[in-house]
């Protein structure tokens, strides 16, 4: 049953972009509470029974029911890129379909911008899907007999918008995703990467509250895939949309996610920012899964700093924010004569780092040892 873990291969992590701050005061764009999906004939009857305490394998052996999603709760902040990551069969696709009620939850609630999707009738749900949520799929889902511009405008047409405004909006989206000049092409005249740009433009055209991506780049070549990841980061900076991104690829998750939810066997193993996942893995599974990530590309100074030895330690050197990624801090720290101060968002000194603190991360990385595992 054990699956081989995907090992780290890509070395050019781009975690240098600004992370969306989590505003505690703002209400969630998406709020999921106690969500379950059990596949099988009597799934509803199992809710509240001890059978749901069983492992996926035990329950399947006992009654033939399969737990797709197990008691999942999380909140996505407005403007956040929230990545759901897990290996094949961990429940990612089921989760994203539950969130839009493309499949019915066995238990739990989903609030989208405060609206309870789980309490809605079909008509209301359709309206939400037309106006509030857009999906980008792995296999594009484009209409083959429609030109690029008409594919992008399709959702607006379904909503009943007039031709003039919908053409205008579609053209804006064409320009936004870099497809100017291809408006009159048909999907099969475009490369996979360009088709996925059409998918992105179509999803953005309706100005949804939340954009959902279900493994959108899995079918693309690695180089195109990397371009598309950069494109998502760029678009996110431009339009600032709330995004929920499903992937089985840790590299992709770390590049894109403000926070990452790691799933296994339908349940949450850990939710955290990339540096939290790497700096404080919740268990051996996550530790093993992330073992080959280049730590200096993900960990921030917060994870490597130490208490100042005295009040004026590092006073002469420029201060660095505690959110600076180690790799980017390295030059400044190594160039300084002594320790460098680390400050939080309010400018308060929260620690110091020196050459050794930086090199420890880099050397551990090169030797493949794990910080905190007792290796020296
Ligand atoms: N309609 C269904 N009936 C029975 N079991 C299902 C059904 N859909 C999914 N499952 C099971 O639920 C579990 C989670 O599947 P899901 O497709 O959500 O995983 P995933 O992480 O998206 O995997 P992949 O990346 O391979 O799509 C799996 O054990 C799967 O076999």
Summarize the structure in words.
The protein is of the alpha/beta class. The chain folds into 2 domains: 76-102 and 119-294, P-loop containing nucleotide triphosphate hydrolases (Rossmann fold, 3-Layer(aba) Sandwich), CATH 3.40.50.300; 296-367, CBS domain Like (Alpha-Beta Complex). Helices cover 34% and strands 19% of the residues. It has helices at 43-46, 56-63, 92-99, 122-131, 148-158, 163-176, 192-205, 222-239, 250-256, 274-279, 284-289, 326-335, 355-367, and strands at 30-39, 66-76, 81-85, 107-112, 115-116, 133-137, 210-214, 242-247, 259-264, 267-272, 320-321, 340-343, 349-353. The strands form 3 sheets. The chain has a 6-stranded mixed sheet with strand order 6-7-8-3-9-10, sandwiched between helices. It has a 4-stranded antiparallel sheet with strand order 2-1-4-5. Strand 4 and strand 5 (115-116) form a beta hairpin. Helix 5 packs across helix 6, helix 7 (192-205) runs parallel beside helix 8 and helix 12 packs across helix 13. The protein is globular. Residues 1-26 and 370-376 have low confidence and may be disordered. The chain binds adenosine-5'-triphosphate. The site of adenosine-5'-triphosphate has 12 residues, from strand 2 and helix 3.
């Amino acid at each position: 049953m054990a699956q081989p873990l995907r090992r780290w291969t890509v070395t050019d992590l781009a975690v240098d972009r600004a992370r969306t701050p989590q505003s505690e005061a703002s209400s969630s764009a998406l709020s999921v509470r106690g969500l379950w999906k059990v596949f099988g004939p009597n799934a509803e009857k199992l809710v509240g029974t001890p059978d749901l305490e069983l492992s996926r394998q035990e329950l399947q052996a006992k009654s033939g029911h399969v737990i797709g999603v197990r008691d999942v709760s999380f909140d996505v902040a407005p403007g956040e890129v929230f990545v759901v990551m897990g290996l094949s069969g961990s429940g990612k696709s089921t989760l994203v379909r539950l969130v839009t009620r493309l499949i019915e939850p066995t238990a739990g609630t989903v609030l989208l911008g405060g609206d309870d999707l789980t309490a809605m009738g079909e008509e209301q749900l359709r309206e939400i899907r037309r106006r509030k949520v857009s999906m980008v799929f792995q296999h594009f889902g484009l209409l083959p007999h429609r030109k690029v511009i008409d594919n992008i405008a399709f959702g607006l047409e379904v909503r009943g918008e007039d031709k003039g405004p919908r053409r205008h909006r579609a053209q804006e989206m064409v320009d936004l995703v870099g497809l100017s000049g291809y408006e009159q092409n048909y999907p099969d005249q475009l490369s996979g990467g360009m088709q996925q740009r059409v998918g992105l433009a179509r999803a953005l055209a309706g100005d949804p509250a939340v954009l959902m991506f279900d493994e959108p780049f899995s079918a693309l070549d690695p180089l195109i895939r990397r371009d598309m990841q950069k494109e998502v980061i760029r678009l996110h900076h431009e339009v600032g949309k709330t995004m929920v991104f499903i992937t089985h690829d840790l590299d992709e998750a770390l590049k894109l996610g403000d926070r990452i939810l790691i799933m296994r066997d339908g349940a949450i193993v850990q939710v955290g920012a990339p540096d939290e996942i790497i700096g404080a893995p919740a268990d051996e599974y996550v530790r093993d899964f992330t073992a080959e990530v280049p730590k200096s590309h993900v960990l921030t100074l917060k994870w490597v700093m130490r208490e100042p030895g005295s009040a004026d330690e590092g006073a002469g050197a420029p201060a660095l924010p505690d959110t600076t990624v180690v790799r980017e801090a390295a030059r400044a720290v190594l160039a300084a004569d002594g320790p460098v101060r680390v400050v939080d968002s309010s400018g308060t000194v929260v620690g110091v780092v020196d050459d050794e603190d930086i090199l420890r991360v880099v050397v551990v990385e090169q030797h493949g040892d794990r910080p905190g595992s007792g290796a020296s």
